Amino acid sequence: MSGELEKSKFVGHTPCEKCGSSDAKAMYEDGHGFCFKCQTYFHSGKERIDMPEVAQGAEFITGEVAPLTKRGIGQETCAKWDYRIGAFGGFPVQIANYRGDDNRIVAQKLRFPNKDFRIIGNSKQMGLYGQHLWREGGKMVVVTEGEIDALSLSHIQGNKWPVVSVPNGAAAAPTAIQKAVDWLEKFEIVVFMFDNDDAGRKASSICAGLLSPGKAKVASLPLKDINEMLVAERSDEVINAIWSAKTFRPDGIV
Question: What are the tens digits of pLDDT across the range 4-59?
Fold first, then answer.
């Protein structure tokens, strides 16, 4: 999941009381929300925490590469993806580094212990997470709903095969896919493996419909997401789900 933001069910878009956008604020079943325009997180109560962007060129947070033991993700995977453990404002955070075409960091997504996150840097330049790791084109690429799931699948596959994640969860996935459509079209097959919930299934179908007919496939899992499958020691089923993914058709028939 993207920054743990999507742990609760997405229910719809609403106006943002902070920036005034008519529909950029995504609301979730437990009452929290996130505005993808002004990068503001809204708690289930009235309190809100702004997700600040720093001036371009400002220093990013540094951290150390370490295994995510509770997630079942090894150090080798974290090193490949440059996924780090650090601190921000006195709190421990996980750091997902987003890189541009020149391999420089353009933004960081910080994951806090209380399931909040913040974006540092230029969020508008955030592409698919991990896109810089793979050459353009090839047989197949798998797209996941969040950074942890991307790392989980990469770990399962021995960090050998292309996998990327949308940057802001299911609600904003279509926008991210549209932005990266030229890169994705260079692969023969694009498999969408989003979360096994209504929001994930809906987003998978919408995203698959943005690609050329016959190129996209939609995979399904018996548990909530890829990381849950990894932790449950059901990695073989994840691989099977990729190869048994159903081809998406524009008329909605999979």
Answer: 333 456 777 778 877 888 888 877 766 677 777 776 767 665 455 554 444 455 57
Asked if residues 203 and 145 have their Cβ atoms less than 8 Å apart, the reply is yes
The listed CATH number (3.40.50.1010, 1.10.3720.10, 2.40.50.100, 2.20.25.180) that belongs to domain 64-125:
2.20.25.180
**CATH number assigned to the domain with residue range 131-247, chosen from the 4 options 3.20.20.20, 1.10.600.10, 3.40.1360.10, 1.10.3470.10:** 3.40.1360.10
Q: Which backbone phi and psi does 105 adopt, to 5 degrees? A: -70, 125
Provide the whole-model pTM: 0.77
Task: For 46-55, write each residue's pLDDT tens digit.
Answer: 455 554 444 4
